[in-house]
Amino acid sequence: MTARRTKIFAGSKIRELRGRIRKTQQAMAAELGLSASYLNQIENDQRPVPPPLMAKLCTLFGVSEAYFGDSDEIRQMQGLREILGDPLFKSASLRPAELQTAVKGAPALVDRFVTLYRAYRTLAERGASESLHPVAGEGLAAPQVDTAGARVASGSAMDVVGPYDAVGDWVQRERNYFDEIDRAAEDLHEREGFSDGMLSVNLARYLQDHHGIRVVIDNELDSRAMLWRFDKRGRRLLLSDGVPSESSVFWMAQVIGRLGYGKLLDRVVRRSGLSTEDARDLARVGMSNYFAGALLLPYRRFRDATRLRRHDLDQLQRQFGVSFEQVCHRLSTLQRPGEEGIPFYFIKTDIAGNILKGYSATRFNLPRFGGLCSLWNVFRAFATPGELQVQVSRNTDDAVFLNVARTVGHAGVSYFDRPRRVAVVLGCSIAHASELVYAAGLDLSDERTIIPIGPGCRACIRTECRHRAIPASGFQIDAGGEERGVLPYHMVPMDEAPTM
């Protein structure tokens, strides 16, 4: 299959970068060998960016081509479509062209609208919970209202949005790559000469020699549902008995990051713009986890190994002595400018379809308010625990991806144990298929093997999918009884709907 090159309209991003280096449009046009009128058309999205000019822009601004991709716009359009699928906006559905105009013309406003909607959902869910479970002896407190009778929430919309969402948005904006932390972890790994096959011994000795911390196995942590605990007073890192070695080394690496690089982690979090202390605390944990992953899988060494082994996840797992999930997660972070790996998306989900983690360096976008597409191979993975599921899929914007999914986690330790069932998915554009071992044996030229997946029913524009659970936004419903298709109703695009 020959990958189709999509036209890239990157006017707003070019204007932003030009503003950073304080160049006039005319000056930059001269530097690029263009006429000022042609550059003006590009910056106003009247013309796409041709490949030769794209190469010049990447050199001029010191960024990769992925920076100019339209994944952010696609993500915003999908978010708007999902939001407008809420019955609250039943009479306010917008045509795709109108959504695109909004995203291209006012991306910052779209972000604030999404934040406001999230705050609304959080307050609505909180209100429903309070009405069902009032505080004993107190009843329900009367809501604050303004002079028009509208309920008033304290704080800003950002304060109401959950910290997980806020931190997830920040990490996505940074494309899941934090250069200062990544390089610091890599430098430590190389400076200390850590060995991939002896990380547990290496990290335990480093903690003892540099921080006076002893690593101790504590048999009582399991009974208290604890995996590890840092005993500051006793200068001990207590690890639960029986946990996999890859988990132990990760926790040791995380503590090394907190103790030795705390100021660096705090500096990165302060620049995040997160407005609540809960979100900042969560971000600090995330950054210490990022440091741990970068220490166990140092950037250049890991990237070179992925190329050599054609991204064979099992081989990489054995080579570096880490878990399957840790390999997948690290692959999604290889976006160092000038030394990028393949742009991957990474998702971790439970058996109910709840997204536990999700990052994307590609045009693949996850639903933000609805459920996952049931055609996705992650659900087949739950039916075959431990087995790898390979899938070629086409998104609603015609982007084709190769992805793999597998369950992760551990089996129960007794009859009464209830282990959590989760799975991870790693995927990339089909354009990189030749670099992945998982393309072996696939007939990429046969369109019948490509699974048409969507971003979730609210935002999916496919009108004849028998797996649809709810109608999509931007469509009118025709429930006429003269015929019956795969759905009990017809979805008619608003552009084609009869006017009254």
From TrEMBL:
<dbReference type="InterPro" id="IPR010359">
    <property type="entry name" value="IrrE_HExxH"/>
</dbReference>
<dbReference type="Pfam" id="PF09856">
    <property type="entry name" value="ScfRs"/>
</dbReference>
<comment type="similarity">
    <text>Belongs to the short-chain fatty acyl-CoA assimilation regulator (ScfR) family.</text>
</comment>
<keyword id="KW-0238">DNA-binding</keyword>
<dbReference type="InterPro" id="IPR018653">
    <property type="entry name" value="ScfR_C"/>
</dbReference>
<dbReference type="GO" id="GO:0005829">
    <property type="term" value="C:cytosol"/>
</dbReference>
<dbReference type="InterPro" id="IPR026281">
    <property type="entry name" value="HTH_RamB"/>
</dbReference>
<protein>
    <submittedName>
        <fullName>ImmA/IrrE family metallo-endopeptidase</fullName>
    </submittedName>
</protein>
<dbReference type="InterPro" id="IPR001387">
    <property type="entry name" value="Cro/C1-type_HTH"/>
</dbReference>
<dbReference type="InterPro" id="IPR010982">
    <property type="entry name" value="Lambda_DNA-bd_dom_sf"/>
</dbReference>
<dbReference type="GO" id="GO:0003700">
    <property type="term" value="F:DNA-binding transcription factor activity"/>
</dbReference>
<dbReference type="Pfam" id="PF06114">
    <property type="entry name" value="Peptidase_M78"/>
</dbReference>
<keyword id="KW-0804">Transcription</keyword>
<dbReference type="GO" id="GO:0003677">
    <property type="term" value="F:DNA binding"/>
</dbReference>
<dbReference type="Pfam" id="PF13560">
    <property type="entry name" value="HTH_31"/>
</dbReference>
<dbReference type="InterPro" id="IPR050807">
    <property type="entry name" value="TransReg_Diox_bact_type"/>
</dbReference>
<keyword id="KW-0805">Transcription regulation</keyword>
<feature type="domain" description="HTH cro/C1-type">
    <location>
        <begin position="14"/>
        <end position="68"/>
    </location>
</feature>
